[in-house]
Amino acid sequence: MSERQKFYTSFHDLSPREYMYIPEGSLQVGKPGSFSRIELGHLFIAIGVLTIAFSFTFSKNSLLFFFLGSHISIVSYFSFMPIAFLGIVTAFFIHELSHKFIAQKYGLWSEFRMYPRGLLFSVIIAFFTGLVFAAPGAVMFRGEAKAFETGRIAAAGPTSNIVIAVVTYILYHFIFFEMVFWGTLIGFICLVNLLLATFNLLPFGPLDGKKIVLWNEIVWFVLFSVSVLFLSGMFIGGNLLTKFFA
After folding, report:
1. Which is deepest, 123, 144, 197, 218, by most CB within 10 Å?
2. Is 96 a catalytic residue?
3. Residue 76 belongs to what H/E stretch?
4. How far apart are CA 201 and CA 213, in angstroms?
5. Under a CB-based contact definition with an 8 Å cutoff, are residues 26 and 36 in contact?
6. Of residues 3, 24, 96, 178, which has the active-site annotation?
7. Could you read off the pLDDT of 111-137 as tens digits, one per residue?
């Protein structure tokens, strides 16, 4: 299959037939920052479903928590939704848009497509176990991408997460630590961005990390080291994780 015909993804290397709908005649390259109506619909659905899934996890309203003796609270679930929503938007949404905009910068057709089965699986797992396995979809890009362009497109997503995580990490520890709502919000944004960056930087399979390693091992090492360093700081310090998992 030629370079022009192959689809690349930021998260999945599944067949486009499994989860991708591209209307005929829609593959014109748009201006950087442009969105199709279908793409916006897929983004809104993915963000909404992930918000529902993460709300089960961090409000401790899953069936597993219930069987372990935790009190189920609908009020707690819905009160956490705004925090989950803002966390997902700043992590998942910006991650995917970073891939998209860099791909568009290089003159490639680029749009997000949700993965319906992955989204459904995320909600089911969160509801029953309180864990989130997020496979919402991916930014697809098509065209004659050079090796360095593919690497930079892959690096854009985790880099955006690391920048957001570093800023919110500092804000949490030095400004918002004692504030209940704002501390929870800033801490959650930091946590989700670090988890998303670290996971996607693993140099395996279809993840961003493997594409970055194939392009530039030094760039991958720096990004992965920073994400692991800050994630380890959360575990060692314990304060931020305790806020959500105590």
Report:
1. 197
2. yes
3. helix 74-88
4. 9
5. yes
6. 96
7. 888 888 888 888 888 888 877 777 788
